[in-house]
């Protein structure tokens, strides 16, 4: 045995060990997502899922208060969203929001001490817009996407004043290759560190660039079906997959990506989710830029926005489907603040998008 062979054996062993270390060891569970024989299975790492379930536990609920009593809007000044609640229920909701959003800062995160009616704290105006957004998501997007669990402030914030998973316009780091502002081949957390365009969230979850691009011919024909467009779409799909900790077959028959009739029902849920996120970003979140101080803006001066990761945080359902809204019915219906901007945006998108695609009954859904 020559010296080269002697050296090569340990190197092979090291390489094999590194390869195996990159794989998640058993045990695994599998969930059938489609017809038998199609390979549409969701593979679940049991240890990883247990850790994720623990991280996505729902918060404790403050007990509801007895009914009756004066209305908050009659007793307090500048209550524009929840003024129809009794003072007791209003106080309970405010205490819950404090736990969800600013448990360390307390009430003074959004209020002037001793003068809660003051509008001098920008976070109060932002919170008012976010409350209106939460109500709209639950009432108008409920059956389309968020029902039956619903959403509350905690769904995104998880005890942090600014949700952990928000995003802003980001051209990516400068590179010596000068490969353009799409950030191609620069690992990005937005796309699960894949070698794909750096920021697919701006064109698809703020703007409304077309996502579907699969052609019906051997070579790409027509607009938005070329290789470059495919890379942007795959970057977005990587973000979805990372956000839900699920593979492509959660929403698609991977043998026929474009075929809605062979897709699980989650694909329609995702279709609505994309439009819901766009509306949230454009109708409610971006307007808060009027009040946000410079240190709360992104590197290019835009307002931090939401994506699928903001709510899902690695779970195929936020909080793994824990019912968030039943204890807080006041967050499940629109009250007070005008939503004309969001409704106008939704109407324009509905007119452009056309009818909701129909899907087949693939079965096996979670």
Descriptive notes:
38% of the residues lie in helices and 3% in strands. With 366 residues, the protein is mainly alpha-helical. Helix 5 (122-140) packs antiparallel against helix 10 (266-285) and helix 10 packs antiparallel against helix 12 (340-353). The chain is globular. The termini are far apart. Mean pLDDT is 83; it is low at 1-22 and 361-366.
Give the arrangement of secondary structure elements.
Elements: H1 3-21, E1 28-32, E2 41-45, H2 46-55, H3 72-75, H4 87-101, H5 122-140, H6 142-146, H7 153-157, H8 201-206, H9 227-244, H10 266-285, H11 308-312, H12 340-353
Antiparallel strand pairs: 1-2
Helix pairs in contact: 5-10, 10-12
């Amino acid at each position: 045995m020559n010296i080269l062979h002697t050296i090569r054996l340990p190197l092979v062993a090291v390489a094999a060990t590194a390869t195996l270390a990159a794989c998640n060891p058993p045990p695994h569970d599998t969930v059938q997502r489609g017809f038998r024989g199609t390979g549409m299975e969701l593979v679940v790492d049991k240890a990883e899922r247990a850790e994720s379930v623990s991280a996505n536990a729902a918060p404790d609920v403050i007990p509801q208060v007895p009914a009756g009593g004066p209305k908050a809007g009659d007793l307090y000044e500048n209550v524009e969203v929840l003024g129809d609640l009794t003072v007791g229920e209003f106080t309970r909701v405010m205490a819950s929001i404090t736990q969800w959003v600013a448990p360390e800062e307390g009430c003074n995160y959004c209020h002037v001490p001793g003068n809660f009616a003051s509008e001098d704290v920008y976070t109060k105006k932002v919170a008012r817009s976010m409350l209106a957004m939460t109500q709209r998501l639950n009432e108008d997007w409920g059956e389309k996407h968020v029902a039956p669990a619903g959403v509350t402030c905690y769904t995104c914030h998880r005890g942090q004043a600014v949700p952990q998973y928000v995003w802003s316009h980001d051209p990516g780091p400068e590179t010596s290759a000068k490969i353009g502002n799409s950030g191609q081949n620069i690992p990005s957390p937005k796309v699960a560190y894949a070698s794909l365009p750096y920021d697919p969230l701006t064109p698809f979850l703020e703007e409304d660039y077309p996502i579907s691009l699969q052609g019906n011919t051997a070579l790409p024909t027509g607009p938005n079906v070329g290789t470059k467009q495919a890379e942007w779409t795959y970057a977005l799909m990587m973000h979805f997959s990372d956000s839900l900790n699920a593979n492509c077959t959660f929403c698609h028959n991977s043998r026929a990506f474009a075929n809605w009739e062979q897709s699980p029902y989650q694909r329609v849920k995702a279709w609505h989710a994309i439009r819901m996120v766009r509306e949230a970003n454009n109708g409610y979140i971006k307007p808060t830029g009027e009040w946000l101080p410079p240190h709360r803006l992104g590197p290019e001066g835009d307002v931090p926005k939401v994506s699928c990761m903001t709510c899902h945080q690695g779970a195929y359902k936020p909080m793994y489907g824990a019912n968030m809204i039943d204890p807080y019915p006041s967050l499940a219906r629109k009250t007070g603040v005008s939503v004309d901007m969001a409704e106008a945006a939704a109407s324009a998108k509905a007119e452009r998008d056309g009818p909701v695609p129909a899907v087949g009954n693939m079965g096996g859904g979670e």
